[in-house]
Specification:
six-stranded parallel beta sheet; 24 helices; Substrate Binding Domain Of Dnak, Chain:A, Domain 2; Rossmann fold; 4 domains; globular
């Protein structure tokens, strides 16, 4: 639990004026300098002029009705109540609930869009996309009880599509992927009444319960918070990942370039930014269209350079090795290069401020999704039934802009190589090979102490923190202490820029982890993809339990999670589904509760007492690392593996002395 004297929010009213104090990304720093020379406002300037509201940051403000807003912050949070009598615990729980509902809705809506695409492909109504990974299709089908032996691929796909639809629309029963949850973990969920039914029902009920005058017991509200978050992690997000793999291919390790140096002054540079792979996959087809390549060359370009950003970029990086220009906090800065001939976006984590920055450098900013229009941007509607109508037009606009470039081009010449694309299937193969793929080597190396434990370090970058620094320092400390790190989303890009996603980075790891990395030929940090791909971590944790030797539930595992620069409601939903699944989870920057309240104590300890995980908070990366390592050691001790086994080489005489039982 956080120390009593430490508030759950970073105390920073003004940002540093020294650009090198804003970010450790040299390319981003160079572009902030250029923006300031050019008089272009970026997110750092806006943050400097916008002081965070301390009352709102702690969820001590209620605006659920027009009798307020009611602020109950103070030295004693129980001294005041809202006009209706709502206590600080009810107010906080309702606010937290609505963050989880919004975050879960974002992932769930994304997932439902993938189900719609899958259904269209299966029914033959969508022909531009195909099933690329039949083995993944069959594996997912088997995991939810669908027979695959001797059946046609499309018959299996049709049954799977119907089954996965229940993830969203079912009103009673358990979601399909509950079958993947370790039995002891599922027992806890059933006892607490938090096994998700269907995502639509859970989100709807949570929004209802958090309405004025409905649920006014913070523990009861928390049950529905957990149920809704689990409908995201084991439902909406997991379905998204699995269908994306089936349609576009399951990632396997690929060496790819990251940072702004991937831009080419003599080529048409197109950036795709957002979260849905459908758009990016179609743009990939369009930039390889011979007629469009010829048009680019006719305009004076040597070719078309397709680059990703944010989470759809991380997904294409993992799946196809498409170069990646930077994470969330660099999306405005990259426009300041003057080299971007079009930036096309779909949804989630897209700043409205991109419009003005893009306009300053004459770059077309193109929205493509009906859910996400931005005032001042060009909108070209994207439809899966005819995707190239949109994506060809994006390429044409980019070629036109290249031909008429007016902005001076300044590209930071920084490129960082890394290995990406570690799906949980590939980890299984990597550890055991084609014929004996297994998580046994991972479990054995945790048991014998070479690997201390596993940490998921995920999530956003936040302007209130020095960009990337917390992620990098935290992970360096973890791997130095023999903790294997799994990464997704913007955090993965921060670590790739720091060179930690290469096998050579093993020299920064502790001796045990370094030995494993060198034996297998893997980095000490494994990049798994976008933020919805956190579901890969859940499945990997379930496989560790299923393999045996590390307890009978996810809560028994020597694992921990962190989102040190979180900024969106999606992150809160992700954190809650990890906590409800049994994972100790630390957030940085701030935490939306008032310290010392009953609701805060419930999240930071009460859930763990019920057999789940727990929340924690720290700002400093080294403190976060210490907390995670202490938790991993606590779990090792509970399992009786807190002391590494001494490795002894045995000769034949020693072996003959062993008793045979």
């Amino acid at each position: 639990m956080a120390d009593k004297e430490k508030p759950l929010i970073a105390k920073k009213e003004k940002l540093p004026t020294n650009i090198r104090d804003l970010t450790i990304c040299e390319a981003t720093a160079q572009m902030i300098e250029r923006a300031r020379r050019d008089g272009v406002e970026t997110t750092w300037d806006r943050a400097d002029n916008m002081k965070p509201c301390p009352i709102g940051a702690q969820s001590a403000c209620c605006r659920m009705c027009s009798m307020g807003p009611c602020r109950v912050a103070g030295k004693d949070p129980y001294e005041k109540t809202g006009v209706c009598g709502a206590t600080i615990d009810t107010i906080q729980a309702r606010n937290f609930a609505r963050m989880v509902a919004a975050g879960s809705a974002a992932h769930t809506d994304h997932g439902m869009g993938m189900v719609d695409l899958f259904r269209g492909v299966v029914d033959g109504k969508i022909t531009d996309y195909k099933i690329k990974d039949v083995l993944k299709l069959e594996a997912v089908a088997k995991s939810v009880g669908i027979e695959t032996e001797g059946r046609e691929t499309m018959d299996v796909a049709r049954d799977l599509c119907k089954e996965l639809e229940r993830t969203y629309t079912q009103v009673e029963g358990e979601i399909p992927f509950a079958k993947r949850v370790p039995e002891k973990t599922l027992e806890v969920w059933r006892k607490e009444g938090i096994v998700p039914r269907g995502a639509m029902r859970e989100i709807m009920e949570l929004m209802h319960r958090s309405h004025m005058g409905v649920d006014q017991d913070y523990e009861n509200i928390t049950r529905q918070i957990s149920r809704t978050a689990l409908a995201d992690g084991w439902g909406g997000s997991m379905v998204t990942t699995e269908i994306s793999d089936i349609l576009f291919g399951t990632p396997t390790p690929v060496v790819a370039d990251v940072n702004m140096g991937v831009l080419k002054e003599d080529q048409v540079n197109i950036i795709i930014h957002g979260h849905e792979p459908n758009l990016f996959e179609s743009v990939l087809a369009s930039v390889n269209e011979p007629t469009l390549i010829a048009a680019a060359k006719a305009a004076g370009a040597k070719g078309i350079n397709l680059v990703g950003m944010c989470c759809s970029g991380a997904e294409m990086l993992s799946r196809h090795g498409i170069p990646h220009a930077g994470n969330f906090m660099s999306t405005e800065a990259v426009l300041c290069t003057g080299a971007i001939d079009a930036m096309a976006v779909d949804l989630q984590c897209i700043k409205q401020g991109l419009v003005k920055v893009a306009d300053c450098y004459g770059t077309p900013l193109i929205t493509t999704n009906s859910r996400c229009h931005i005032e001042g941007a060009t909108h070209i509607d994207f439809h899966e039934h005819s995707p190239k109508d949109c994506t060809d037009e994006i390429v044409i606009k980019a070629i036109t802009r290249f031909k008429n470039r007016k902005a001076v081009v300044e590209i930071p010449q920084i490129v960082n190589k890394g290995v990406h694309g570690f799906s949980y299937e590939y980890i299984n193969y990597m550890l055991g090979g084609s014929f004996r793929g297994s998580y046994r080597p991972l479990n054995d190396n945790i048991i014998n102490g070479r690997i201390r434990g596993v940490a998921g370090v995920v999530g956003c970058t936040n302007v209130r923190m020095k960009q990337d620094w917390v992620h990098v320092e935290l992970v360096k400390e973890l791997i130095k202490n023999d903790v294997l790190v799994l990464q997704t989303g913007c955090s993965q890009i921060a670590l790739a820029k720091a060179g930690l996603l290469t096998p050579e980075a093993a020299h920064l790891a502790g001796p045990g982890l370094a030995e494993v990395c060198e034996t297998v030929g893997m980095p000490p940090v494994l990049g798994l993809g976008s933020c919805v791909d956190n579901s890969r971590i859940l499945i990997a944790a379930s496989e560790m339990v299923r393999e045996g030797g590390l307890g009978t539930s996810i809560a028994d595992l020597p694992v921990a999670g962190a989102a040190p620069e979180w900024m969106s409601e999606k992150a809160i939903a992700i954190g809650q589904y990890f906590v409800a699944s049994g994972v100790y989870t630390v957030f940085g920057v701030s935490f939306p509760v008032v310290q010392g309240t009953k609701f805060q104590k419930h999240l930071f300890g009460g859930l763990e007492a019920k057999g789940m995980g727990k929340w924690d908070f720290a700002i400093d990366p080294h403190e976060i690392a210490q907390k995670m390592i202490a938790h991993i050691d606590k779990k090792r001790k509970a399992l009786g593996i807190d002391k590494a086994r001494e490795r002894v080489l045995m000769d034949m005489a020693d072996r003959q002395k062993l008793e045979v039982t």
